[in-house]
Amino acid sequence: MRPNWPPVIRTPWPPLIMVFGLLLLLTYLLFQSRTPALTHDTHFHAALQDVALYDVQLTRDVLLARAGLLPHVDSLLQTSRALLHALARLRPGHAEPSGEMAMVLRQQVDLLTTVLEQKLRLVEDFTTDNAL
Questions:
Q1: Residue 116 is inside which H or E element, if any?
Q2: Helix, strand or coil for residue 55?
Q3: CA distance 48 to 129
Q4: Do residues 90 and 72 make contact, with C-beta atoms less than 8 angstroms apart?
Q5: pTM of the predicted model, to two decimals?
Q6: How many CB atoms within 10 Å of residue 94?
Q7: Nearest to residue 102, comparing CAs of 38, 36, 39, 41?
Q8: In angstroms, how far is CA 34 from the centroid of its own chain?
């Protein structure tokens, strides 16, 4: 029999280095998935949510004013301004949607703007007719 000289010593370093590297990679991927980068699409959706919120607030304030439960019509003016500002954020310079849907969304934003501007004119007529 031949002796095993020099003796073969197996070190656990290569498997440990691989496991440590995989843990680092998984940790990096976990942190990257938890902090998404803001894109134009998220700004567009936020602006669209603001438009919906101010539209509902404007409708609520008009109904309260019509029922006589809103002491001042100043909130109508503030909500109208906020709605116009949110509509301006939807315009193609501020929150440009990305992808092929840009043209379709632009047409829908124009339609939404037309409808809400008509609503704002009606609210303005309401406030002038019911001024003290």
A1: helix 102-129
A2: helix
A3: 31
A4: no
A5: 0.63
A6: 12
A7: 41
A8: 16
